[in-house]
Amino acid sequence: MADKKVAVIGAGLMGNGIAQVSIMAGYNVVLVDIKDEFVDKGYANIEQGIKKLEAKGKLGEGVTAADVMAKCVKSIDLASAVKDVDIVVEAVIEKMDIKKQVAKTVMDNGPSHIIFASNTSTMSITEIGKDCGAPDRVCGLHFFNPVPLMRLVEVIRSADSSDETINIITEYAKVLPCLRGKRYIAEVLKDRPGFIVNRLNAPAQIYMNWVFDTAAERGIPWEHIEGDAGSLMPMGPCVLTDYVGIDTAVHTQRYYAETLSSDFAPGKVLTKFMEEGNLGAKTGKGFFDWSQGRPNPDKSVKAGLFNIENTMAILLNEGCRILEEGIASGFKVIDDANMAGMNTPGPFGAGKKQYARWSEMLEKLADETGKEYLRPCELMKSGEFAKMRK
Ligand SMILES: NC(=O)c1ccc[n+]([C@@H]2O[C@H](COP(=O)([O-])OP(=O)(O)OC[C@H]3O[C@@H](n4cnc5c(N)ncnc54)[C@H](O)[C@@H]3O)[C@@H](O)[C@H]2O)c1
Predict the structure, then answer these.
(1) What domains can you pick out in the chain, each with its CATH number?
(2) At residue 385, what are phi and psi to the nearest 5 degrees?
């Protein structure tokens, strides 16, 4: 595979990471963006990363940063850049019309075997490839940030992807180095919102919105919600939401509200923060004041409102929906992908024993919150998921 030529399109945060691990694997890479200044900045970031690894002796025996960087060239002309390329990984901004245009330019100008893999987090792969002229040679390839450190890569099969496309992209991704251990490739069998890992974790936000809004109505201080999480979460729900960014959380929730269920719609508290421009860590204020660095709320008092076990139950329910919809082949893939992408265990390990009790908890939670999406699905209630192919 390493004799294959790869084009990485979009020299931003993700494109840099994807290009870096690709040249480290020995692929010849052309890094493409729309302006010299963007592609130069991306190239400089990659070089900085490679030089750091060289200084730590992590490039391999006798391999220099210059040797690795020699595998990377820059371009701002997509049509000519893809002329002799085998695999394209697209990491441009998250806009459907731009992604579709890029896919068409690739198929119109690349060789007849060229494969186009999109790193989109939220767009339909089927839609991206639909009008490019060769939808069978389009698939998804979803990396996690930062690419050199996060082990997971999801390979997404669109409604039109051919088996050959999926095989070639899987072979490409398998050999990309990862600084935290062996890369894990999860095959996503259906092009559904959130793919596997983002989807698995998404509905916890429905619960969090209810916790935040209920705390606000009852005048419960945010510290007490952090107190509920105690030492079970490295960052409690409020600090974590501030850290992720209120705007990011709101955009994600709106996306799932449109694509999965209106129960995902952002709650009153997050909407108010968003309107006020208090977006969390990035603006210095959200639930907490971040102007002096990461806040350290007093967790000694509990609100008795947020229960982390509910979150585990919600994840198990969503994992079962992923299985019911045929997005993953079995529960082990989901658990392993969550560990490789989020560094936390998936829900099935504990869920195999707890599903009956957790189902009851979710029935109560759905009644209390009025959010039907939280009600347990049949596969969770029956425990039959444990018998499905791993
Ligand atoms: N940031 C993340 O954590 C993350 C994680 C997984 C997937 N993604 C996805 O990866 C993609 C890129 O995200 P990012 O965070 O790297 O964005 P970014 O804004 O850092 O980079 C996007 C780059 O694409 C370039 N670009 C725009 N139009 C282009 C075109 N027509 N041709 C070539 N280049 C073009 C921009 O100039 C920019 O350099 C998005 O689809 C995003 O959803 C992001």
Answers:
(1) 5-191 (3.40.50.720), 199-283 (1.10.1040.10), 308-387 (1.10.1040.10)
(2) -55, -30
